[in-house]
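Posting here for the record, re: pyridoxal-5'-phosphate.
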Amino acid sequence: MQIADFALERFFARWEFAARYLLCASDVEGFPMADLLALADGETRALWDGLRLGYTESTGHPLLRAGIAGLYEHAGPDDILVFAGAEEAIFCLLNVALGAGDHAVVTWPGYQSLYEVARAAGADVTLHELHEADGWFLDVERLIASLRPQTRLVVVNAPHNPTGMLPTHAEWARLTDELADRGIHLLSDEVYRFLELDEGDALLPGADAYPRGISLGVMSKSFAMAGLRIGWLATRDRDLLGRCAAFKDYTTICSSAPSEILALIGLRARDRVLARSRRIVAGNLELLDNFFRRRSAWFSWVRPRAGSIGFPRLLADMPIDEFAAGLVEAEGVLLLPGSQFGHPGNHFRIGIGRENLPDALARLEAYAERNLA
Ligand SMILES: Cc1ncc(COP(=O)(O)O)c(C=O)c1O
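Prediction output follows.
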C-alpha cells in the first residue's frame, strides 16, 4: 500500500512530548485513572479486579458494545464494532467500503486519514472545502451537487476538526435524506460529539439517521480518555460491519483488555465524565473569546459551534509557520499551523480542552506583543 505521510501526526511526533503547552491539542485533558476507577459500579469493579490479560472478543466486550449502543437510538450491541481508537476504525472502514473506480466526498480541511486512506484504497476523492468567509459552514447543496453515480461514500466530520463547524438540524436532515435516497453510505465522524456548546444543536448520529449511516465514535475526545485507544463504528449495515470485522483480523484482531473495562466504566458514568469535559471547554472558550476580541487586530476568530478546537487566522504580515516556530521556541507553546492540513490560509488550530490553556494563552499574548505590535 502506498500512502502519503500523515502530516499532522508527523508534526506531533516531533512536538507533542517536547512542547510544554499543547495549545493545539484536539482532546480534552486526560481523565485521571484513579478518578475513573472511583466511578466504577459493582459489576465493572468486579470485572476490573478479576481481569485476566488474555485475548479479548474481537468485536469488543459484549458489555462494552452494549454500553456504546446506549449512545444511539437505533443501534444494538450487534451493530457495534470496537477498534483501537477511531483511527483504526477509519482505516478498516475505508479499505472495506472503497476501491478502484469508486468515488468519495470528504470534508476539508480535515483529519487527513479520512481522505488519505480513501485515496490509498484506490478511490477518487472530492474534497468538500469549507471556507472561513462562510463561517466554515457545510454547504450541503454544493456537496450534493458533487455526488456522482460512482459515489459510494460521503465522509463528514461534525463537530469538525479543525473549525468547530456543526451543521444545523435542517442541513443535516437534507444531507442524510439525500444520501439515504441514493443508497450512499455516510461515514459520520462524531468523535467530538457531546461537546456541542448548545446541547440542543447535537445532531442525529449517522447510525440513527438511516440504515447506511455509520457513526464513528471514540473515548479520546469528549470522554477525555485518548490513552485507552478505544473507538468504534456503529451502523445497522451488518454486512459492512462484518467485512470491517474481517479486515480487523489483519490490524489488531482485538482490543486491549484493561482498556475495554475502563471504557465501559467511563461510558456508564458518562454524565459525570462529559460534564467535566464541557466545564473545561466552556471555561477555556470564554477566555479565548475575550482574547480574540482584545486582539482582533492580530487574529480573526470564528467561534466554534461545537468540539474542542477552533481554527483562527493570523492577520499579521507574517506566515503562521514562522510565528508558530518562534512561539514554541520562545515560550514552549505549540500551535498547529494550517499547513499541516495542507491549508494555504494563515490559519492555525487552537485546542480548547487543556487545563493549562490560561497560562499558554498568556504566553501567546506576551509573544505576540513582542513580535506583532
Ligand atoms: C476528526 C477526527 N477523527 C478521528 C480521530 C482519531 O481519533 P483517535 O486518535 O482517538 O483514534 C481524530 C483525532 O484527532 C479526529 O480529530
